[in-house]
UniProtKB/TrEMBL annotation:
Full protein name: Iron ABC transporter, ATP-binding protein
Transmembrane segments: none
Annotated organism of origin: Mameliella alba
Taxonomic placement: Bacteria, Pseudomonadati, Pseudomonadota, Alphaproteobacteria, Rhodobacterales
Family: Belongs to the ABC transporter superfamily.
GO function terms (MF aspect): ATP binding; ATP hydrolysis activity
Keywords of the record: ATP-binding, Nucleotide-binding, Translocase, Transport
Known role: Part of the ABC transporter complex HmuTUV involved in hemin import. Responsible for energy coupling to the transport system.
Domain of life: Bacteria
Matching InterPro entries: AAA+_ATPase, ABC_transporter-like_ATP-bd, ABC_transporter-like_CS, P-loop_NTPase
Keyword Transport attributed: yes
Residue intervals of the ABC transporter domain: 3-242
Amino acid sequence: MMLEARNLSIGHGKTLVGRGLTLSVAPGEVLCLLGPNGCGKTTLFRTLMGLLPPLAGQVFLGDRPISTRTRAEIARRIAYVPQAHAPPFPFEALEVVLMGRTARLGAFGQPGRTDRATALDAMDHLGIADLAGRNYAQLSGGQRQLVLIARALAQEAPLIVMDEPTASLDFGNQAQVLSRIAALVSGAVEDGRSVVLSTHDPDQAFALDARVVLMHRGGILAQGAASDILDGPRLSAVYDMPITVETTTSGRRVCLPAVS
Ligand SMILES: Nc1ncnc2c1ncn2[C@@H]1O[C@H](COP(=O)(O)OP(=O)(O)OP(=O)(O)O)[C@@H](O)[C@H]1O
């Protein structure tokens, strides 16, 4: 296992957000975290990456508790893709991608030719090499999100954690970012990685053929293949409204809320 949580309790200070969370991420899979606003997805991410201490239980990164690893060690194994916001300073997109190399530089090390080549390569793999010299702050939300994914690729970590990678993207950009994520995991881009992502759209779990962790009321209601566990009754319980799952003529499953 690349990353494993054992009977984890998560929260902030003394405030418990979730408990009894047991999950793992295997090489080459996409794990999709689904749950309503405020259920603790970001808190769980931060705990899984060693940024927040668990209130109970443990996180293992590889064969060791994450609490025993240095930040640089963690950064060589996990790359984090935050939601794309415009930065206060102007950066070239390539500079943003180069930041992914930080954990691989020595103390005071400057990025060298190999680092630039790796960064450009990552952009090329995502089809955004032409954005390298552009001002990151002036890119569209979708372009920025792809630059941040390129930064994670340049980090060369086997596991990429993405916090709502399609939030605030238009319909076309959502589909584009999703297909890039699918390619990362399938190995069509580089050597295949694992991705953990959170989303508010259960259809994305179907589109990615993901393994799903369905969070509800501070715990995990179900986990397993999207096609096995995402059904009308569970989704209705989690999102507190009647939802049905239907299959399109092309065989894809979609979720439909009953709006009266
Ligand atoms: N820094 C913090 N200090 C105290 N409580 C916090 C902090 N950050 C989040 N919380 C609380 O923890 C709970 C879980 O929040 P979290 O952001 O993890 O949920 P989420 O599932 O990511 O939500 P969303 O889907 O809306 O992004 C919420 O009740 C929130 O108010």
